[in-house]
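Hi W., the NAI complex you wanted:
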Amino acid sequence: METSLIQKKKFFIIDFDSTLAKVESLDLLCEISLEGRPDKDECLRQVQEITNLGMEGKINFSESLTKRLSILKANKRHVPELVERLKNNISDSFNRNKIFFEAHSEQVYILSSGFKEVIVPVVAELGIKAENVLANSFEYDEEGNIIGCDKENPLAGDKGKVATLKKLNLKGEVLIIGDGYTDYEPKGAGLSSKFYAFTENVRRQSVIELADHIIPTLDEFLFLENLPRAQSYPKSRMTVLLLENIHPEAIRLFKEEGYNVEFVKGALDEDELCERIKDVSILGIRSKTMVTAKVLEHANKLISVGAFCIGTNQIDLKACTTKGIAVFNAPYSNTRSVVELTIGSIIMLSRNIIQKSNWMHEGKWDKSATGSVEVRGKKLGLIGYGNIGTQLSVLAEAMGMEVYYYDVVEKLQLGNAKKCKSLIELLSIADFLSLHVDGRASNKDMIGEAEFHAMKDGVIFLNMSRGHVVNIPALVKAIKSGKVRGCAIDVFPYEPKTNNEEFINELRGLENVILTPHIGGSTEEAQFNIGQFVPNRMTEYVNSGTSYGSVNFPQIQLPELKEAHRLMHVHNNVPGILANINQILAKHNINILGQYLKTNEAIGYVITDIENDVRHSEELVKDLKNIPGTIRHRMLY
Ligand code: NAI
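Structure:
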C-alpha cells in the first residue's frame, strides 16, 4: 500500500535558464562583466551563438561552457548584480503561480547546468529549497575571477542532467519542464515519463519535436496536470488579436497575463476578419476596423472587444451586446494631450506668434507689442465641461485665467470656474472660447453665424472637439470681419483620409489661424496610456467579471475573488432571471456568498459568488445555461 502511494508521487524537474528565468544567465553575466568594453556587442553575440548551439544539441555541453567562460571575463563581484537582475526576470507564468510552488516545495527540483551561487537566491523567491537546486558551482582564482566550474560535478560534463537525475533516484513519476535539448535527455534515457517543452521565452523546433506536450506557459502545464494554479483556464489557450498597429505596451500586458497574442500591423476588411476572428477571445482594434454583425456571427469565442481609441462607431455595439461581448474604449487616455495643445494655442494666438514667426522667416523684424496680450486675468469660456473641459479649466486657472463654462448637463464646478446658464451668456462674456463638446449629431453647426455674432469683438476661438460642430463659412466670415481675432482649429467637417490627400478648406491662408491635422490627442504618452488602459479594463473583465468602463455592458465593479467561485451570467433584460438562478443554486444545495446584479435597456448581468468547496457538476452549469434568455455564462474559480 505504502509503495504504491510513493510511486504515485509526482516530481517536477525544472530547468532554470530561459525556463524559470526569462533569459540565459550567462548572457546576462556577460552584459554585466563586459559593461563599458568596446568589444561588448561582439562578445555578447559570440556567447549567445554558443548557447544556442548547445541548446540545439549541436555542440556538447562541456565544450559550450568552456568556450563561454573564456569569453566572459567575469568576477565574483558581478554575481550579486546578476542575481538581482534575474530576480526581475522570473518568467511571468512562474511568478503568478507561487501557489503551486508553495504546495509542492518538496517535489520541485531545479536541474540546470547553470550555477548554484546564482540560481539558489533567485528560485528562493518562489519558495524553492536550496537543497533542491541541482546545478554547477563556479571556480574562482585568487582575484575572484571566474575561471571555470567544479569539474567533479556531473552537470559540468556531457549528459550531466541524465547522470544527476539517475543519482537522485526519485521514487515516483518524474515530469520535466525545459526549453533545451539537455532538458529532454533524461526522458530519452528513460528517467522521466514526460518531457514538457516550455516556449514562453524561446521556441526551439528541434526540442519541440521531442516533447510530449508543448507548454506556452506554466499555466498550461498546471492545467494539464490538474495542479494548484492561478488561472482556472490557461490564458495561453485564449487568443488575443490586435490590429492596426496597437501600441507595444498592449502586447506586453496581454503577454504578461499569459495570452497567446497575435498582432497585425494594418486593419482587416470584413471578409478577412470573419476568417481570423473564429478562435479569437479578445479583439483589439482602432478606428479603421469595422466590427460588423456579420463579423460577430463568426466570432465563436469572443469575450471582449477593445477600441484602442475614443470612438466606438466602428463597432456594432448592439450586436456585441446581444452576444454578451463586452466592449471597452479609452475615453480619457488622451485628455491631457488635448488640454496641453489648447493651452499652447491660446498663448500662441494671444501673442500673434504664427504671423511673427512667418515674418521672421521672410527676414522681417517687427518688435511691436501691439495686439499682444497676456492670458492672465482674461476670461476663458469653455463650451462643454466634460473630461477635457474640466481639465483645461484647472490648468487655465493655474495660469490666472478666469474660467466660465456652459454644459447641457449639470456638472460639478472645479476650482473657481463659473457656470453659465446658457450658451449665449457664455459667448457674450468670454475673451477666449474653446469648444469641447462631444460629437453627437444634434451638435452639428452649433456654432454658426448667430453664435459668432453673440461673441465679443476680437475674441479668440478654438475648436479641438469635432469638425461638424462649427459652421466653417460662418467662421471664415467672422475672421475676415475681425470679430474673431485669432483661431486654432484641429478638427474639420471633412478630413483627408490619408497623408497623401490634399487638405482643402476655406480656412487656408487666413491670418492668425492655426490649423492642425486632428492631432490634439496624438502624443506618445496618449498612445502609451491607451495601450495600458484598454488591456487593463479587458483583463479585469476576464479575470474578475468587473465591467467598469464598458460602453455596452451594465457597469459592475466587483470585490476581488477570495476563496470563492464566481458565476457570471449575462442575459436578456427580462423579469425572473435572478429568481431562476437562485432556484437552480438552491436545487444544487449551493450557498451564495455574494450576489450583484445590474441591468441596462438590453441586458442584465448577474455575478454570484459561491463557496469554493462546492464541486461544480456539469449539471449545474448546464442548468444555468438553460435558463431562458441566457446569453452567456462564465465561471471563475
Ligand atoms: P466628454 O464626453 O467627457 O465631454 C463632452 C461634454 O460636452 C459633456 O459634458 C456634454 O454634456 C457636453 N455637451 C455635449 N453637447 C453639448 C452642447 N451642445 N452644449 C454644451 N455642452 C455639451 O468628452 P471629452 O473627452 O471631454 O471630449 C470632448 C471632445 O473632444 C469630443 O468631441 C472628442 O471627440 C474630442 N476629442 C478630440 C481630440 C483631438 O484629437 N482633437 C482628442 C480627444 C477628444
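The CA atoms of residues 492 and 505 lie 8 Å apart.

W.
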